Amino acid sequence: MSDPSADKVLSDQALVSQLYQGAQQHTPAPSTDRAILAMAKKKIKLSPDSLANQPRVKKTSVWWQKMQYQGAVAASIVLVCFVALLQPQSPHISLLDPLPVNSPVATAMQNDALVSEVLAVRSSTAPQQAAPMMARREVTNSRFQAQSAELADVTMADAAIVNKSMGELSNKPNNHPKLRAKNHLIIQELLMIQAKLYLTHGQITLTAQSPDVKYSKVQNSLIKHYLALHKNMKIHLRIILNGTSDPTILEGYSGVLSRQEINGLKKNRPTP
Amino acid sequence: MNQLTDETLLGHYANGDFSAFETLYLRNKGGVYRYLSRQVHNKSQVEDLFQEVWAKVISHGQHYQQTASFKTWLYTIARNKVIDHVRHMQVVDHVIDSSIEEDEQQPQHTQSKHALGQALGPANLHQRLLQAQAIDYCLHKLPIHQLDCFLLREEAGFTAAAIAEIVNINLEAAKSRLKAGYKNLRSCLSLKLELSPGSISAVMEGKANE
Q1: Which of A104, A211, B18, B104 has its CA 20 to 30 A from that of A146?
Q2: Three-class SS state of A44
């Protein structure tokens, strides 16, 4: 015997189910179907099956891989520092830098340097300029002779150099300051010789022209030396006067040039 | 392809077989759609929810794990979508313009009536339409919990145990809801269709003849 209530429930369920399934059923719109299928297709394209199946490989990064970026930066810094240390220091432009070679100021400074250098050479060989005149008389003849010979050698060497480059210098007005500096030294030397001989420029010139006057060897060598220097000085002076029209150039030569010589130089001077 | 289970088809789809998804979709789309449309009466909202359900299946299909059957998973998604929708509608206090909906759906009904009339004949068509209207009316009157369980049973063919799992209730409660749902529907349909034991058998016979 079956339970009538259970049978009733089952029959109710069967009836309702039949009615429900038999009723008009709703279905999604075709556009919805297409949209969903397109979505599924797109998902496949975006994530290939190989990716879905492949086991994920865990990336293992060792310490040097983690430090790659920092290492590269540090290496770059070290390299830059190394190159900077090896590189010769570039000229640093400041007020203390040497001026261009052709500028007048630079030329003057070069002349000053040259003068001081030559004076240093002279000071090592020449007698003390500050020594009293009376003390110099007591110097023995041999010593005086030796010193004079040295002086003669040095000044003759200078004169030879000057003569050798005279042709070049005459065509280069920029070199005149050098000649002036050399003449300045020569004037000092000439005045020193005058003091040693107790003679003026005119007396020395006359003595040289009169063979009757007898002097010692030392005095004769000094006069020879004086005349040689004087000759060089005049050559320099001609070159200087040839390249400039400055009238004050001859002012410093009053002690070593006679009036006639000055006038002669002025006459030979070209018109500017 | 048609002999394969839903889970196998989903696996094939995860491996890049689009036809597997097509089969899976055609197999399950009607049940899910009706499950949604019986609870949400706005057609456009039903379409949206339906797409959301399948979008979730597509996006999470590759990570699907066979701890539960595909259908259980699918209807769980659909149910959650309905719950979210109902909550959202309660918050928004949305007013559905039913007249517009009816106007939109009217031509479809007319077309389907015409197609069915040609297939079934005038007498059967009239009977079917009456039944459909009665079913719609009674389902609309059914409490939401009973309706939920009823639809899961009828559309997906779930057992009481599966329904209990999806709805997250115990088995007895699921059985009780099912029993009550069927009983209420039976009562409602009896009133609407004036069903008697004789008419029931007539309905059964009509179904058998089809």
Answers
A1: A211
A2: helix
Neighboring chain A residues of B47 at a CB cutoff of 8 Å: 28-29, 32
**Tokens representing A68?**
């790659």
- Report the percentage of chain A scoring pLDDT > 70: 54
- The amino acid at A68: Q
Q: Check CB contact under 8 Å for A29 and B47.
A: yes
Task: Locate A70 and state its tokens.
Answer: 């920092």
- ipTM of the predicted structure? 0.71
Global pTM value: 0.45
Q: Flag if A11 and B14 touch (Cβ within 8 Å).
A: no
Q: Could you give the CA distance from residue B81 to residue B202 in angstroms, rounded to a whole number?
A: 39
B-chain CB neighbours of A35 within 8 Å are 51
B121 dihedral zone (left: phi>0; alpha: psi -120 to 50; beta) = left
Beta carbons of B50 and A28 less than 8 Å apart: yes
What DSSP character marks residue A88? P
In this prediction, residue A158 has a pLDDT band, given cuts at 50, 70 and 90, of low
When CB atoms are compared, the residue of A28, A39, A48 closest to B16 is A48
